[in-house]
Specification:
Blueprint lengths: L5 H12 L2 E2 L4 H6 L5 H5 L17 H4 L1 H13 L4 E3 L7 H4 L8 H22 L6 E6 L22 H18 L3 E7 L2 H18 L5 E5 L13 H8 L6 E5 L4 H14 L3 E5 L15 H13 L5 E2 L7 H11 L14 E4 L3 E4 L6 E4 L8 H8 L3 H13 L4 E4 L8 H12 L3 H4 L3 E4 L3 H8 L7 E5 L5 H14 L2 E5 L1 E2 L2 E2 L3 H18 L7 E4 L15 H15 L4 E2 L14 H18 L3 E4 L1
Parallel strand pairs: 1-8, 2-3, 3-4, 4-5, 5-6, 6-7, 7-8, 11-12, 11-20, 12-13, 13-14, 14-15, 15-18, 18-19
Antiparallel strand pairs: 9-10, 16-17
Length: about 600
């Protein structure tokens, strides 16, 4: 989709020339006003049933002149971008104040006020255009973190509810004429993924497209509140058409330095940063002076970390002025050349490099691969089922395959419950999740539960190209990689030529029509059972190995996987023979290019 706003295009030109300056803390400036309850209510909310003190979003209607003056003060200090006063202006956040029915009104008014301030500043300095970013906060809800410590599976909202909530805000921001959207201060990556999906859906529904900035929050130790590392978090959102990724809030610039350095090293997009003015003191204030912040941020600019910079909690126009002066001495960061590698994430990043060893996908959380797991799921003994997943990771699984396909189970509900509980187990959820099902509704339910970059297993061409592309685009919207089975409208591929041709056809469709990077495509050319007594089955192992070799020659960035235990089903009950068969098969398949496999 093409950007539809000329000011947005002007903003992209600015970023080519210099480091752009974002504004500072709206909350800090509002608190300096010393407003009481009536000040927050004003005339528009005089009779509101709930207290509004500290509902900063309400001031857009009750104190519009004050909000406009705050924008003007940051612009006067050198900001190129002001954020709309909409950080909490989503229905779910406004509901705490009884203002959810004012969502559209508040967002439209905030856009108008910010635009008036930006246009006035541009008139004063025509050679320095100013821009408006639609602020989209994290809300007060979580999807990866239990809302009730006594019930790790409890969530106050669903993924779909968060997408709908965000769309209410985003469509109003687009209608209000923002130049870019800023999804910020994300501490739960699954909530951020919901916001990014809502943005894409809003672009399609409105026809209005603007650049997207995404900024998440890390704490001391370098993880988000939902426990993801910087590189795992970035990988989770890397599918989105982002202008920039960044870090804001929680820490001051000095403590943020190593995490910003990590992001700058791995991110092929532009990078933003707007730290707090240090850590809060005993009274909840922030002590870093403009000079202190500017000195450290100037080092960030000198070291090539920055494209966009500003301030978060505790920062004033004086901070922004000092930061702008300091970074003006340095050119903008240039994005590094990144090798095209397959990357997935749980709480931590998994990167498959040419020198990587074979990637093990644990099969014991697959109902068809483990009778014990199947029994535990049927008995709803989820605690014990989680221990099966934990054992797999402890025993070396790099990815875990989760499959709950069983005729008597409500697949979407069981997948949702298991993955939600699993997200509260950091020793398990640190690895990427492979969502495995033959039913599309189960796959999509799973996609709504994982904050990392997971893998969908699987889709195929058996229902034709239209259905294949529809599913592939949805998977891409959720940010997952995909396993493609060598299966088409005529059935499962068994011979070498058919395996390769189906994979080539799927590859063209995925890369040319569904915007899939080749490195996010995993082909499964069908590991089929040998020694069944039927002569035509005897070459199945050799056919897989040779097809693997040809697929990797023709499409080298893709990966090859398969369910290894299939090869020896004829010998069920004779584990000694099965293990020997698996070892021999893997020896040859890995040499041919097999990258990963579902194994016990």
């Amino acid at each position: 989709m093409e950007i539809s706003n000329n000011r947005s295009k002007d903003f992209l030109n600015v970023l080519e020339e210099r480091i752009a300056i974002l504004d500072g803390a709206m909350g800090t400036m509002v608190h300096a006003l010393g407003l009481d309850e009536q000040g927050f209510r004003g005339e528009p909310f005089r009779d509101n049933e709930r207290d509004l003190k500290n509902c900063i979003d309400a001031l857009t209607l009750s104190q519009p002149d004050a909000i406009k003056q705050i924008h003007a003060s940051f612009l006067e200090a050198g900001a190129d971008i002001v954020e709309t006063n909409t950080f909490g202006a989503t229905p779910v956040a406004l509901a705490d104040f009884g203002l959810q029915d004012h969502t559209r009104e508040l967002n439209l008014a905030a856009c108008r006020i910010a635009r008036e301030a930006a246009d006035a500043a541009t008139l004063k300095t025509p050679d320095k255009p100013r821009f408006v970013a639609g602020s989209i906060g994290p809300t007060n809800k979580q999807l990866s973190i239990a809302g009730n410590v006594a019930d790790p599976g409890h969530r106050d909202v669903t993924f779909d509810e968060m997408v709908s909530c965000y769309r209410s805000q985003i469509e109003a921001l687009l209608e209000g004429g923002v130049d870019l959207l800023l999804a910020e201060t994300a501490f739960d990556t699954l909530v951020l993924k919901a916001a990014l999906l809502a943005i894409e859906e809003s672009f399609r529904s409105t026809g209005i497209v603007v650049p997207i900035m995404a900024s998440f929050t890390v704490f001391e130790g370098g993880r988000t509140l939902s426990a993801q590392t910087v590189d795992a978090c970035y990988q989770s959102i890397s599918h989105a058409n982002l202008l920039s990724a960044g870090i804001n809030c929680a820490l001051g610039p000095e403590k943020l330095r190593p995490y910003l350095a990590d992001l700058s090293r791995i991110c092929p997009r532009m990078v933003s940063c707007y730290p707090n003015a240090g850590l809060p003191n005993a009274l909840g204030g922030f002590d870093e002076t403009p000079e202190m912040m500017a000195s450290v941020i100037g080092e960030f600019a000198r070291d090539g970390f920055l494209n966009i910079v500003g301030g978060c909690c505790g920062t004033t126009p004086d901070h922004i002025r000092a930061i702008a002066d300091e970074v003006s001495l340095h050119p903008p960061r240039r994005s590094p050349d990144q090798p095209r590698l397959s990357r997935y994430s749980g709480l931590e990043l998994l990167e498959v490099r040419p020198e990587s060893s074979f990637t093990i996908i644990g099969e014991r959380t697959n109902i068809t691969g483990s009778r014990a797991f199947a029994r535990l799921i049927k008995e709803e003994n989820y605690e014990a089922a989680l221990s099966v997943a934990r054992q797999q990771v402890e025993n070396g699984a790099n990815i875990i395959d989760v499959n709950v396909d069983e005729g008597m189970l409500d697949g979407p509900a069981v997948m949702t419950k298991f993955l939600t509980l699993l997200s509260s187990e950091p020793d398990v959820s640190r690895v990427p999740i492979m969502i495995d099902s033959s039913r599309w509704e189960v796959l999509e339910a799973g996609l709504k539960c994982i904050q990392g970059k997971g893998i969908v297993n699987s889709i195929s061409l058996k229902e034709g190209e239209d259905a294949f592309l529809k599913q592939a685009r949805i998977i891409r919207d959720y940010g997952a990689a995909v396993v493609v089975m060598a299966f088409d409208e005529h059935g499962q591929a068994t011979d070498i030529d058919n395996k390769v041709s189906i994979c080539e056809r799927a590859y063209r469709l995925l890369t040319e029509k569904a915007d899939f990077p080749p490195e996010d495509i995993i082909f499964d050319p069908n590991i089929l059972t040998v020694a069944t007594g039927m002569e035509e089955h005897n070459r199945y192992a050799i056919n897989f190995i040779e097809a693997t070799r040809q697929i990797k020659e023709k499409m080298p960035l893709t990966k090859i996987s398969g369910g290894v235990s299939n090869i020896s089903f004829s010998f069920r009950g004779n584990n000694l023979v099965r293990e020997a068969m698996h070892a021999a098969f893997l020896y040859h398949a890995i040499k041919a290019g097999m990258d990963m496999g579902i194994v016990n």
